[in-house]
Amino acid sequence: VHERQNDVLNEGVAVLGRTAAFAASEAANLRQADVPGHLSFASLEAAACRAVDALLALLQSRVSDSRVAESVCDAIGEILDTCSPASPVRERALEGLFAKDGQSADLLSRVAVSHASNLNLQSKVIWVSGVVHGAVSVIQEMERHCATHALQLPAMKTLSVLYTSHPQIERRDAMARPCAVRAVVSAMEAFPANLELQQSACNALAAIVETHLCRGGEADVGVLSEDLLATCLRAAHAALSLVLGCSDSGHSASHRTLLVKKDAVRLMGSVCNVAPSLSTWLRESGQEQVLTNALVATADRVADGSRDEEVEDVLRIELIALSHVSGACAAIIEPLRRWGPSKPAVVRAAADAVVELARHESAAPPGSPLRASVQELCAAGCGGEFVAAMRTYPRDEELHTRMQLALGFLGTGSSPLAVPS
């Protein structure tokens, strides 16, 4: 009976949260449009505020109940997502969740402390805090609980979302980029053998670094120094070296190593894209070998003649990263010649990599090996490699479509050679 009552209660919380979010959203629309109606924006906001009060009262009385706490955090998070910064509904929620003096224990902190081992709930608490206060609040939680893996992981996932969810990140989050990098790298150093944390960390760092490339964003504040970018590169190198040294024991472990490789290599490519001088350092110091080893390991993972979409995506990311370091010709044509005749997965990854390089070639910073990469690929016979692959895999229509697109960017799509005999 108690379990059924809890189910009803949690369902009621979800319905109340959605209804309040709708009311807050409609109130904002009416306020902005100044549309008269039977239900004014003020009455809608008042109704949403009453719903928030009810949710907060429930959380206050059942703070030790993890299911109720999760449901309420979900509901309040949904409401906050629909509110403008000046919304009275948002203000009401913040008054109930956070202590005004900054000293006393607020309700959200009590929830976090009461369920320290509940990773799912911790992620919701950190997410709500991050949505309200930005990346700084997440970083503070990471620093406060630097020895607690259960808090570091959801914090990194929240940072990833904050730095990727909007085309233009908020100024406060842009300013926090250097601190965010330091916090994430510190966590990687504290838990060097935890593959899930290493993957989430590389994903978060890549999201932070890639905001430097967003036009129209806050590129003028929170700029990452070359030293910090080098720190990111070393962290990615360490994570990649870790998984390359792992022996895959079972499907789950094998899949995790693939995900770590994907995000670590993506981070290395992003850093080299932002700071081409670091790609030069990577190449001249011989550190690029870890990228080559990663590519070989991923290619060997796919059986001859077979396709695997997830592995192909990792291969594409590896080819792009190698292009930043070694240049497009060495990164793409050599793997095509080595594996193209036996592994269509590598061909598909190479075709997608060519398309991506062509689309972003003009945006490559000065000194980048990607400048004029399409012209170099054409001169080195990349188009001919794709034509040969078309003849090798005549029945794979999806693969042909991708190769035709790559040939189009290479300027050989209309050539008679582009049609397999």
TrEMBL record:
InterPro entries hit by this protein: ARM-like, ARM-type_fold
Protein name per Swiss-Prot or TrEMBL: MMS19 nucleotide excision repair protein
Organism this protein belongs to: Noctiluca scintillans
